[in-house]
From TrEMBL, chain A:
<comment type="pathway">
    <text>Purine metabolism; IMP biosynthesis via de novo pathway; 5-amino-1-(5-phospho-D-ribosyl)imidazole from N(2)-formyl-N(1)-(5-phospho-D-ribosyl)glycinamide: step 1/2.</text>
</comment>
<keyword id="KW-0067">ATP-binding</keyword>
<keyword id="KW-0963">Cytoplasm</keyword>
<feature type="active site">
    <location>
        <position position="205"/>
    </location>
</feature>
<keyword id="KW-0315">Glutamine amidotransferase</keyword>
<feature type="active site">
    <location>
        <position position="203"/>
    </location>
</feature>
<dbReference type="GO" id="GO:0005737">
    <property type="term" value="C:cytoplasm"/>
</dbReference>
<comment type="function">
    <text>Part of the phosphoribosylformylglycinamidine synthase complex involved in the purines biosynthetic pathway. Catalyzes the ATP-dependent conversion of formylglycinamide ribonucleotide (FGAR) and glutamine to yield formylglycinamidine ribonucleotide (FGAM) and glutamate. The FGAM synthase complex is composed of three subunits. PurQ produces an ammonia molecule by converting glutamine to glutamate. PurL transfers the ammonia molecule to FGAR to form FGAM in an ATP-dependent manner.</text>
</comment>
<dbReference type="GO" id="GO:0005524">
    <property type="term" value="F:ATP binding"/>
</dbReference>
UniProtKB/TrEMBL annotation, chain B:
<keyword id="KW-0067">ATP-binding</keyword>
<dbReference type="Pfam" id="PF02700">
    <property type="entry name" value="PurS"/>
</dbReference>
<keyword id="KW-0547">Nucleotide-binding</keyword>
<dbReference type="GO" id="GO:0004642">
    <property type="term" value="F:phosphoribosylformylglycinamidine synthase activity"/>
</dbReference>
<keyword id="KW-0658">Purine biosynthesis</keyword>
<keyword id="KW-0963">Cytoplasm</keyword>
<dbReference type="GO" id="GO:0005737">
    <property type="term" value="C:cytoplasm"/>
</dbReference>
<dbReference type="InterPro" id="IPR036604">
    <property type="entry name" value="PurS-like_sf"/>
</dbReference>
<keyword id="KW-0436">Ligase</keyword>
Length: 231, 88
């Protein structure tokens, strides 16, 4: 079982991921430079947060044409796991592995905060270690995190139960007051149809070490590791 | 013989997509006293010089570039104007 962390010029959460997977969980982890094309040794590909290619043009727009992206699309087609966090989520929508787009926050400001997030379901590999409807706290840090999808796409996502995480109150209410960036239906994270590709704006990797405030994100990586090493 | 063209590409947000930056600029203009302002939407303007064998080819390539990279058609529309610069 091996994690791979994609490194674009401008990625800045890449080592945070490996600190969790390799450092805390002791799982084999390889940093993958965006020019690489052979990622066949990997089980889980993580596209980290940051500002790939300076976020020029649009967040994630240029990263989608990196040499490694075709291999990631192939990896996903094989049913293997792809996790996009923050800028990684933006890259996944740009490249079309996930529907919709991430646009400028409703309030225009870059938000660096901790958000309460509801886990909608726990029958996917990503959330096995959570309870369905559990409210967790994860850091968010983004300027373009407002999830948008047109009406038909949104309906397909909701009908397919593909929203994994929603911004909520600490008691789990989904409303506009507890929606930091204006995301449609408070969406914080979605999966593709098969469930093997997840994109989310919050940062689970920044909530994995109690010394730096919160461990609610660790269960995601632990769940992946357990599921893939015992499979 | 190839021709050199100048392209002016306009990328605009689809009408269904919120534009908080446009809204902020709109209220700024109104505060300045321009009460006639009804709406502001902010887009991108891209200038490009390119060579192609003919105008059709240039347009076809520009469409491709816009669809694949310059615009995200989930949230944006695009259009462009093309003018001939010189035969090279």
């Amino acid at each position: 079982m091996k994690f791979g962390v994609i490194v674009f010029p401008g990625s800045n959460c890449d080592r945070d991921i490996s600190t969790v997977t390799q450092g805390i969980l002791n799982a084999p982890t390889r940093m993958v430079w965006h020019q690489e094309t052979d990622i066949s040794d990997l089980d889980v590909v993580v596209i980290p947060g940051g500002f790939s290619y300076g976020d020029y043009l649009r967040c994630g727009a240029i990263a989608q044409f990196s040499p490694v992206m075709n291999s990631i699309i192939e990896h996903a087609k094989q049913g293997k796991y792809v996790l996009g966090i923050c800028n990684g989520f933006q890259v996944l929508t740009e490249v079309g592995l996930l529907p919709g787009a991430l646009i400028r926050n409703r309030g225009l400001h870059f938000i660096c905060d901790r958000a309460t997030i509801k886990v909608e379901r726990n029958d996917l590999i990503w959330t096995k270690n959570y309870q369905a409807q559990q409210v967790i706290t994860l850091p968010i840090a983004h300027g373009e995190g407002c999830y948008y999808a047109d009406e038909d796409t949104l309906k397909a996502i909701e009908d397919g139960d593909r929203v994994l995480f929603r911004y909520s109150s600490s008691s789990g209410e989904i409303n506009s007051d507890n929606n930091p960036n204006g995301s449609i239906n408070n969406i914080a994270g979605i999966v593709n149809q098969k469930g093997n590709v997840l994109g989310l704006m919050p940062h689970p990797e920044r909530a994995a070490d109690g010394n730096i405030g919160g461990t609610d994100g660790l269960a995601m990586f632990q769940g992946l590791l357990t599921a893939l090493t015992t499979a | 013989m190839a021709t050199k063209y100048h392209a002016r590409i306009y990328v605009t947000l689809r009408s269904s997509v919120l534009d908080p930056a446009g809204t902020a600029v709109e209220s700024g203009l109104k505060q300045m006293g321009y009460t006639e302002v009804e709406s502001v939407r902010i887009g991108k303007y891209i200038e490009m010089q390119l060579t192609a064998n003919n105008e059709d080819e240039a347009k076809q390539h520009l469409d491709e570039m816009c669809d694949r990279l310059l615009a995200n058609t989930v949230i944006e529309n695009y259009c462009f104007e093309l003018s001939e610069l010189a035969t090279v």
